[in-house]
Structure formats: C-alpha cells, structure tokens
C-alpha cells in the first residue's frame, strides 16, 4: 500500500469546503438541539472589592500585592467558610448538600483587585441563595481575620516599646512607658505579647492589616452559565462535523492510495 500523500489529502479536503461547511452547520444545529433538551443551568454571582492602604504599607511589589490578594481568596475558599455556608444552606433547604457537590458547582475568579464568587444550579433560586450564603460567610470570616490582623499590628508596636525598655533598663534610662518597670516584669511582658501576637496572626488567616475588603454585589443572577452551556454544545457539534469531514477526506485518500 502506498503512503498517503498529505498534500493531496489537504487539497482534497479544501476542495470539499461545501461538504465541510454543511457538516459543521449540521453538527452545530445538533448541538443546539441537545442544549435545548438538557435542563438549563443558572448562575448567580457575588463580588468582593479589595483595596490596599498604601499610606500604611508604602510602595509594594507586584509579588506582595499578589500575596495580599491571594490571602483573600484563600479565606473565601477555606474549609471554615465553606462548611459554615453549607450548614446554613442545608438548614434553609432542609436537605443535605454535600461539600463536594457544592464545590463542583462553585467558582472563584480573580480580576485585578476583585474576587467574584459564582454558583451554578438548575434552580435559579438555589443558585442565588447559595452564592448569597457563601458570600456572607466569607465576608464575616474576612472581617474577623482583618480585625485579628490589626490587633497583631498593634501588639507588634507594643512589643517594640517593651524591647526599647529592655535595652534601656541596664543604662538606667527612664522611659515614659517603662516607669517603675524592672527587668523581670519587662521580660514577662515581652513573652506575653509575643504569645498574643502568634495567636492573633493565626486568627488573621494570613490577611494583611492594610487591606480593605468590601462585598459590593451579591446574588447577581445571569444567564451566563446557560449561554455558556449552549455555546459549548454548538461549538462541540461544529467541531464534530469538521472532524467527520476530515475523516471522510482521509478515507477517500486512503482508497485512492490503495488503487495506485
């Protein structure tokens, strides 16, 4: 059997453009029909806006800004937030919504300084309720984390004062915040503040104290998911038609090669 001439096959395929177009249109229409038969999927979204107070931080590198943004996203998708949201959702629905089922239909997208939460479900009311509950749970966790982050910053300032006291005590210097302090009490205060800082940092969930996070929109419903589903099936059908046309051209070229 002779080898297939790729150039001739490509030429043969290009000459069949009308057949290819017809097959792609037929495939697209079939995909549209399938998308119409399938139950529609509705999407609801919530948006978090993130800003950084540069008067507190000074100029930040792109990496530092990215780390701050990713910290917010980590809280939104944390097990604590998801489990809290699921508990509230199941209580309201009176059913058991599994964590895996929730995550399979949940999406978190970042665009510059915004995080968008999305949830999809065949029932638009469930999609809206789920994303509202998720966003409120995330908002509460973010606010709590930022409060602990601010507390950690304040404690760090107190720690610096106590360290100054510690260095000045041997010299007999009198500092306003160190009056009537001895070495043992200063060391004890330093240890206590250090422990509190570690606790507050852990509770901050990695959030940056100079961040400001706002839930600007919640429960925005749209037909994006339904439209995306329809487009997917139409495109898939058209590609199947294209692939079928290529296969038909290849088969004809193989038959021609055998005949030679």
Write structural notes for this entry.
The chain contains 9 helices and 4 strands; from the N terminus they run ααβααααββααβα. The protein is α+β, with helices and mostly antiparallel strands and 260 residues long. It has 2 domains: 6-37 and 228-259; 42-222. Strands 2-3-1-4 form a 4-stranded antiparallel beta sheet, with helices on both faces. Strand 2 (106-111) and strand 3 (114-121) form a beta hairpin. Helix 5 (79-93) packs antiparallel against helix 7. The chain is elongated and about 105 Å long. The mean pLDDT is 82.
Characteristics:
67% helix, 9 helices, 4-stranded antiparallel beta sheet, elongated, 260 residues, alpha+beta
Question: What's a quick, concise take on this entry?
Answer:
The chain is of the alpha+beta class. Helices cover 67% and strands 14% of the residues.
Strand content bin: 5-15%
- The general outline is elongated
Tally the beta strands: 4
Report, as a whole number of angstroms, the end-to-end distance: 8 Å
**Percent range of helical residues:** 55-70%
Secondary structure elements and pairings:
Layout: H1 6-15, H2 17-37, E1 42-52, H3 54-57, H4 62-76, H5 79-93, H6 99-104, E2 106-111, E3 114-121, H7 124-168, H8 183-203, E4 211-222, H9 224-259
Helix pairs in contact: 1-9, 2-9, 5-7, 7-8
